[in-house]
Structures are given as structure tokens and as C-alpha cells.
Amino acid sequence: MSYDNIVEQLRSNVLEVTFTKVNGEERVMPCTLLTSFMPSYTAPEATDIDQHSVNKTVIRAFAIDKQAWRSFRVDNVTNIEVLNG
Fold it and tell me: What's the CA gap between 21 and 35, in Å, rounded?
């Protein structure tokens, strides 16, 4: 799957993403980009966002099990399943 495809799925579902961590361990992570699962936060200013380009090799998502932000490399994803949507 591509970066754009995974991010699109994360925006509308809770996914179980299986990937190989940088240290070689396998991780199965329930995660999402649905705001209803995330803690409240103050959105960054638009000028802050404009100054950064998107790195499409890494995806940052909210890990449901850890209740924290985690990231994974797109190339290291081995499986994706939709948990609910």
C-alpha cells in the first residue's frame, strides 16, 4: 500500500497495522487518525504547517493501545486490517 492509501484509511477507520520496527521486531499496532480517538489538542498555526514538507516514507498515527503518537515506515508494513470504521 502507498502512503496516501494508508493515510486515507487511517482518517476513516481504526486499523491494525503490522510492520517491522527499525530494530527488527514485529509490531501489531491498532491505530487511527480519527479525531474521536485522540486527546484534544490545539491545532498548529497554518504557517507552521506550510514550513514543513511531508515525509511520505513515514506515517505518524495515534496508537490506540499506547494512547500516544507512534510512527512507522511505509516500506516496513506487512499487513493492514480494518478493525472498525
Answer: 25
